[in-house]
């Protein structure tokens, strides 16, 4: 019934800062960008493999509760081929990452980092 995830939506507190992070640092391709004047909101569609991220801005959005972890979507995970290479690149770009860990069930390596609003992001090695 469900084939794949089409998109994930993220609301940014600072649209330009988050756009820079996702486009210039993470290297996601811009599909389209629209400003919706009636909502005072940007909507940026970004390509991630065969899926998309919708990056929104809305005036006066509340902060996301992260710690202690709140119910709901926990984090967004990107599959990568070489986790050490991506972590090195992120660190050189000023993005702090946690230490690389090994999933006790799959034996695959993974690591967490945050977007500019503190949204937890994960890298998972193929």
How would the blueprint of this fold be written?
Layout: E1 7-12, H1 15-25, E2 29-36, E3 41-48, E4 51-57, E5 76-80, H2 83-92, E6 101-102, E7 109-114, E8 120-125
Parallel strand pairs: 1-4, 5-8
Antiparallel strand pairs: 2-3, 3-4, 6-7, 7-8
Give the averaged pLDDT, no decimals: 94
CATH topology of the largest domain: the name is 2,3-Dihydroxybiphenyl 1,2-Dioxygenase, domain 1
* Overall domain count: 2
What structural class should be given to the helix and strand makeup? alpha/beta
Number of strands: 8
Number of helical elements: 2
The CATH class of the largest domain, by name, is Alpha Beta
| Bulk shape | globular
How do the strands of the widest beta sheet line up side by side?
A: 1-4-3-2
Q: Specify the helix fraction band.
A: 10-25%
Find the CATH superfamily of the largest domain: 2,3-Dihydroxybiphenyl 1,2-Dioxygenase, domain 1
Query: Which spans have pLDDT < 50 for at least 5 consecutive residues?
Result: none
How does CATH name the architecture of the largest domain?
A: Roll
Distance between the termini: 25 Å
Q: Note the beta-strand portion.
A: 35-45%
